[in-house]
Design a protein that fits this description.
By secondary structure, the protein is mainly α. The chain is built from eight helices and four strands; from the N terminus they run αααββββααααα. Strands 1-2 form a two-stranded antiparallel ribbon. A two-stranded antiparallel sheet has the order 3-4.
């Protein structure tokens, strides 16, 4: 049986290759432990990298939907609060008209006091109908007018135009309110009706029909508020869904890309030991003298 001769040069070359390989593994382990990334570039794991890219796209969409939902909630909260104030103001208006209707024969001064009180409440209601959010009238749709209603109660919104926010892949909510649907416009508005009511109080006209008309406006504003509440509820639910999706997407992305700290630390320690062992073994192999070579 022939004995294969192993030369010193081949031993040194093998030792050098072992050291280089140990160095590469140590460098990879060091990088993994310092960055805590399992996949840093597509070539590390093409399949995982592709899935991570898709997840990042979904995360960006989730972030945008969340911003939209937050903005929608602010719009709708503002509109809902304004409508609540409107309902309360109409309650007060009804009390004034009812008081004027039940006073029997009132003096001119008493009628004037009731009329002035009614006009003040009309101004409060008009101010509510001109509520704004971030410089935009919540009751004027896409209109760029300074206010949703003019002083005489004319609505300045754009008919059929809506302000909406996309809060999910398949979910869009309207965030503005059709001011004309809630308060009417011009001569057919609640503001014109209140002007006529103030005039009737001053002249001592019967107010029973006015009370019935006011009750109709009360129901109308409440109906609009219910619609706003439904849109708000949809937006709030979607915000919760988006928050849950955010956690799910980040967890899945982390599973694909991020390294486990304990595992990375153990691997780094193991590669350091392996590298030191390779150095020690190579040092022993390379301890050759000129006499060893001549021999």
């Amino acid at each position: 049986m022939a004995i294969q001769r192993v030369s010193s040069i081949s031993m040194i070359a093998a030792a050098d290759r072992n050291i280089q390989a140990a160095q590469q593994r140590l460098a990879a382990a060091t990088n993994r432990a310092s960055s805590l990334k399992e996949v840093e570039k597509p070539s590390d794991d093409p399949a995982a990298a592709a899935q991570a890219m898709e997840l990042r796209a979904q995360q960006r969409a989730n972030t945008q939907y969340s911003r939209n939902a937050n903005n929608a909630n602010s719009w709708l909260s503002t509109a809902d609060s304004a409508l609540s104030r409107g309902v309360n103001t109409i309650h007060q208006i009804r009390d004034v008209i009812l008081s004027a209707a039940n006073q029997g024969t009132m003096s001119a001064d008493s009628r004037e006091a009731h009329a002035l009180q009614l006009e003040a409440l009309r101004e409060d209601l008009l101010d509510t109908a001109n509520t704004q959010f971030m410089g935009r009238s919540v009751f004027a749709g896409t209109s760029d007018a300074a206010s949703a209603f003019t002083a005489d109660g004319t609505h300045q919104g754009v008919e059929g135009a809506e302000v909406s926010r996309k809060v999910g892949p398949n979910t869009t909510v309207r965030v503005d309110v059709d001011g004309a649907a809630a308060f009417g416009s011009g001569e057919d508005s609640i503001f014109a009706m209140l002007e006529r009511a103030a005039a009737d109080i001053r002249s001592g006209e019967p107010l029973q029909e006015t009370l019935g008309e006011l009750d109709g406006w009360f129901s109308r504003v409440q109906s609009v508020q219910a619609s706003v509440g439904a849109q708000h509820a949809t937006s709030l639910r979607q915000e919760e869904v988006l928050a849950d999706d955010k956690v799910r997407l980040e967890t899945r992305r982390s599973e694909l890309e991020d390294a486990d700290l304990a595992s990375a630390a153990l691997d780094l320690q193991a590669q350091e030991v392996a590298y030191q062992a390779a150095l020690m073994a190579s040092a022993r192999v390379m301890q050759t003298s000129l006499m060893d070579y001549l021999r």
